[in-house]
Write a structure and sequence with these properties.
Blueprint: H1 3-15, E1 26-29, H2 40-61, E2 73-76, H3 77-83, H4 86-89, E3 91-92, E4 95-96, E5 105-108, E6 113-116, H5 121-130, H6 142-154, H7 158-167, E7 172-174, E8 189-193, E9 212-216, H8 221-231, E10 235-240, H9 248-254, E11 259-262, H10 268-278, E12 283-286, H11 300-306, E13 311-316, H12 331-338, H13 340-343, H14 358-381, E14 384-390, H15 391-401, E15 422-427, E16 430-435
Parallel strand pairs: 1-2, 9-10, 9-12, 10-11, 12-13, 13-14
Antiparallel strand pairs: 3-4, 3-16, 5-6, 6-7, 8-14, 15-16
Helix pairs in contact: 1-2, 2-14, 8-14, 12-15, 14-15
């Protein structure tokens, strides 16, 4: 590794509480890709390297290193670049995915720009209602809705639109310049909870074999984390509410290795099923807006009280401090609100974007790393853990904590060929072409044990 590459990975590993001596196990090879003004390459490879090192550490603790200590970590940067845009590479029977809906994007306002997110039908309906526009449900009326939305936004102030959307439960964020310094969001927060005795996991070839994970996440960051933990052997069961449908395409991209069930956690019968699952779970990963699960009695304190020794990992968009804590958000909106869109703006002044949903993917790999480090530490002390990460914390790190390693971050020749980093497999959804996992250490699995299935169709039971 170069000194700069070492610095980025060391920052991530230190934030995770990892032993510094293990950093010498990490090496990189291959073209990096993901050129941008901001050090996206460094963020991507550092988060994957930290996740891989956490897997190697836990694998060694479970005998996966075959007595040779912590396995070496070798990161193919081309695989990292490919995986960070996995949704662009996925094909289902040759069909590419739909990533952004017509009403999602940047829009000119009377005094600047606003970024909207309306990929889900309920978000589209709320956005149009907040601005006093009719909703025909999409489809043939999309062109008319786009014209109407553009017209009303051109006559409105960006922050006014932002606040009207927030009040209506919709998603729109005024494009803002980057702050002078980080907002104080930690990259990773880990708190030990309770007391206990050592709880070592039994010997296993994969670091997460036999680990039971309840996945209460949606969209990209949380599902990337649990997709990675599933690759590493965990029994991951995703639970969704029946009346909040998921995008089939998003689920296809992040559903590898996992099963998916639907439970209404406000209904007595379904709640009883969930509580039975929780009783033998090792990890609960949540990705809903802060406070949403607390209303159901499923906040971290309540979960840890009912299941001592549990690892509870919380992910949100805007962090848990400041005036935006508790607001809904997605990667694209955090890029706009934290100043990334201004830094990456084009020569015409139009806001720009990162070459990948890097906040989502990077935070996902950090979250998977944090869970594995928590399991390693729990084996020694038996205590539960409360983990917290946010897209805003990752954005602050990108903006203020990282420096580009490459002399010319815009070198167009330094782009990896994705073909060697893609694989094909059959699934209940059809024939898939997909990115391989970038997680790399000696003994790492080559692929997932199962392909993605249809959303919400598995039984809510442990394997």
């Amino acid at each position: 590794m170069t000194q700069q590459q070492d610095a980025a990975t060391a920052q991530a590993w230190t934030a995770l509480g990892g032993p510094g001596a293990l950093l010498e196990r990490v090496s990189f090879h291959g073209p990096a890709g993901l050129p941008a003004r901001l050090p996206v390459r460094e963020l991507a490879r550092a988060t994957v390297a930290a996740c891989s090192l956490a897997a190697a550490e836990l694998s060694a603790a479970r005998g996966g290193g075959s007595g040779r200590g912590v396995p070496a970590v070798r990161i193919d940067e081309g695989a990292v670049a490919t995986a960070f845009v996995s949704e662009r590479h996925l094909r289902i029977d040759g069909r590419p995915l739909t990533t952004f809906a017509p009403l999602s994007g940047f829009w000119r306002t009377a005094d600047g720009w606003v970024r909207t997110h309306a990929n889900y039908p309920h978000h589209r309906a709320r956005l149009l209602a907040a601005l006093g526009l009719p909703d025909d449900g999409g489809g043939a009326g999309d062109a008319q809705a786009v014209r109407a939305l553009a017209g009303i936004l051109r006559e409105s102030a960006a922050e006014q639109v932002q606040e009207r959307a927030f009040a209506a439960g919709a998603l729109a964020v005024a494009v803002a310049p980057p702050a002078a310094g980080p907002a104080g969001h930690p990259l990773v927060e880990s708190v030990r909870v309770g007391a206990g005795v050592a709880r070592p996991l039994p010997p296993a070839a994969l670091p997460c074999s036999g680990v039971r994970i309840l996945d209460l996440t949606r969209v990209i960051a949380g599902p990337v984390a649990t997709r990675t933990l599933a690759l590493l052997g965990a029994d991951v069961l995703r639970i969704d509410p029946p009346r909040l449908p998921e995008s089939p395409d998003a689920h296809a991209d992040t559903g590898f290795g996992k099963r998916s069930a639907r439970l209404d956690l406000a209904a007595a019968d379904d709640r009883a099923v969930f509580e039975a699952l929780l009783a033998t779970a090792d990890v609960v990963v949540t990705g809903y807006r802060p406070g949403a699960l607390d209303l159901l009695g499923l906040g971290p304190e309540a979960l840890l009280e009912r299941r001592p020794g549990l690892v509870v990992a919380q992910l949100d968009a805007w962090g848990r401090i400041g005036p935006w804590a508790g607001r809904r958000g997605f990667d694209s909106l955090v890029q706009a609100g934290r100043g990334i869109a201004v830094v990456e703006a084009g020569p015409d002044g139009r806001p720009g974007v990162l070459p990948a949903q890097a906040l989502d993917h990077g935070t996902g790999y950090l979250l998977a790393a944090a869970v594995q480090r928590a399991l390693t530490d729990r084996a020694q002390d038996g205590c539960g853990r409360r983990l917290r990460l946010s897209l805003a914390g990752t954005a602050d790190w990108l903006l203020h904590g990282l420096r580009p390693a490459a002399a010319d971050p815009h070198d167009p020749a330094d782009v990896p060929d994705p073909a060697p980093r893609l694989a094909e497999s059959d699934s209940p959804l059809g024939r898939l072409r997909h990115a391989v996992s970038p997680v790399g250490y000696d003994g790492a699995p080559a692929g997932w044990a199962r392909p993605p299935g249809h959303w919400g169709t598995d039984a809510p039971v442990w394997l």
